[in-house]
Amino acid sequence: MDFMKQKQMKRTLYCLLLSALGITTSCVDNSYDLTKDIDMTVTIGGDLTTPGSSSDSIKLKDLLDIDTENSDLKEEPNGDYVLKINGDPTNSTIKVDKVVVDASTSDTNSSDELTFVKTSNYPELPIQNLNPNWELSNGKEPIPEEVVDLEYAEDITNNVITLNLNLSGTANGVILKKGLTFTFPSYLDVSADDAVTDALFEFKKSKDNTKSLMVLKKDHHLSRFSDEQWKIKLNKVYFSSSKENGVVVPESEGFIPAEKGNPAMVKFNVEIPITGNVTVEDKDFPANSSNINFKLVSTVTSQEMTLEKVRAKVDPVIDFNVSDVTIEDLPDFLTDNKVVADLDNPQVLLNVTNTAEVDVNFQAVLSSYKGGENKARIIVGTDTATNNESTIRLKGGSIVNKICLSPKKEDVPEGYTWVQVAGLPSLVRDIPDLIKVEDIDAKVLPNFYTVVLGVDKIVNTDYELNAPLEFGKYFQIVYNDTIDGWTEDIEDYEMKEVVVTLNAKNTIPLNLDIEAFALDVNGNEMPDVKIEVEGNIAAAEKDEQTGETKEKTSALTITLTKDDGSRIKNLDGLILRLTGCAVPEDKREEVTDFDAQILNANQTLKLEDLKLRIKGGVTMDLN
Fold first, then answer.
1. C-alpha to C-alpha distance for 467 and 349, rounded to whole angstroms
2. What are phi and psi of 12, to 5 degrees?
3. What is the DSSP letter of 527?
4. Res. 45 pLDDT band, cuts 50 70 90
5. Which tens digit of pLDDT belongs to each residue from 385-441?
């Protein structure tokens, strides 16, 4: 056996056994050949006892053979143990389709007829009842279902309105007087789209700031033989009344939400009154004519428009993806089926970058599985109508949302927002091998947002399970190990009873119970060899003033015998089962105020006054 590769406690116990046997072999003079024609089976009676000895302080990481480099269990700089498992980053998309408004041409609208008589001084006559009516609606293309309400649109493709004004009647032309005004409703914000229109008209708000006005800057001659067209840019369309912005949308117009099976609609009957004065000059009279009669005729035309950027309430379907977390690489002491990870404050650290303009409410079920069996299901987040410490809100605008899910608002990493998940400890209680995020319900909050339509917005999600081994009263670990290979050293020895006594000084905050089972040379358990352990190693206690663990000393006796009272032979080693628990099972209900403790790599166990007593002597086969 290579003792240098054994942990210190196992090495100490084994060496004690060999040293006891060494006492017996010192009675034999090996310079003589005792194997020739002589039965060399010798029994040395009486009790053999080794002097008391001690082990070095054995650190927890050595005691439990913890390798954090190749494990999901990590050691913090201060020695604290933490389960750290990362999920793979995932991307989800949020998209709201564009809103399309139909192309439209108004009916031809004519003013009241005007009459001028040829004279040397022509009066100015008012234009009356010239009110072109133009429809702005989405009759052909349905409004996307995810658009719940529209406040306004401000980035519109093909947003040009063409205003036509011409003459019908006998006049060759008329003079449109400075100040002639096209009045647009308050829900339309317009400006000139071309140089011609910009040169002729000034665009401004009405005195009460409720209308957009297109006002003629100077007198302009309108010929009957030309079709005047002025290009108007539709900068913004309001779909609902806004007192703040002086916008009034007529009842049953604007954005009409979906209701009772009827899809949502956009609908405006846009009336654009044209007011002002006109006059004529001599050239506007046909030859040999002393009077003229005419009407001003107007039409409004628009192309199919696409609303690209809107202020809206939206409810898109969000296919939110979050990866599973597989827990594969754990030290042995956390893999037994009897392990109970009663952790005090495990954390799930969410990092979500939401490039959409909207805020998202997130609710889901975290499920843990072990061997394919569902062990726990806990709800994280709340519905959109609730906003409390358990609510998860993912803010939009390419913000990295850093969220710490945990039962307690303690040790929250800097920059993270705490969200309470009271049931999170149950997720890891059985040390699962798989954690899934299921039944995800991601909903946009019912607020108005400025949204670019028709573009996929990415939501990137990354998360980490961060669970310090800081535990409650039900915490329990199990460590199994084997000490074997003794045959080459003690195959010639038979013992009736072996008793090991020791004092254990423990700074580990766990009560340690030891079970042992004898192994024969074939690696099989020896059921007829009884190993009794009297006492246990008591847990270290926390110092109320310093918070440090105080060393606790316990006495322990381990006895090996055979059920039938005969001698033990062919012993090749032991299976050791070490169970560590925060509070013994029979006392847990009595403990009502357990102060959470944490496992640390530098906590130690030291064995002192370690003695091995062999009762009834040793039989040696020296043949």
1. 10
2. -65, -45
3. T
4. low
5. 999 999 999 999 988 999 999 999 999 999 999 999 999 999 999 999 999 999 999
Question: What's the gap between Cα 167 and its chain centre?
Answer: 67
The pLDDT tens digits for 438-448 are 999 999 999 99
- CB of 438 closer than 8 Å to CB of 325: no
Indicate the pairing of strand 274-275 with strand 181-184.
antiparallel
Question: What would the DSSP string read from start to end of 374-436?
Answer: EEEEEEES--TT--STT-EEE--SSEEEEEEEESSSSSPPTTPEEEE-TTHHHHHTT--SEEE
| 590: amino acid identity, one letter | E
The CA-atom distances, in angstroms, between 214 and each of 242, 250, 272, 420, 507 are 22, 21, 10, 58, 87
Q: What is the pLDDT of residue 46?
A: 63
Which uninterrupted H or E stretch holds 62? Answer: helix 60-63
Query: pLDDT tens digits, residue range 221-242?
Result: 999 988 899 999 999 999 999 8
Cα 304 from Cα 314, distance rounded (Å) = 23
Q: Do residues 99 and 306 lie in contact, with contact meaning Cβ atoms separated by under 8 Å? A: yes
Distance CA 580, CA 341 (A): 11
Provide the 10 A C-beta neighbour count for residue 26.
Answer: 8
Whole-model pTM above 0.85?
A: no
Alpha carbon distance 298, 232 (integer Å)? 14
Average per-residue pLDDT in the chain?
88
Q: 3-class SS at 565?
A: coil
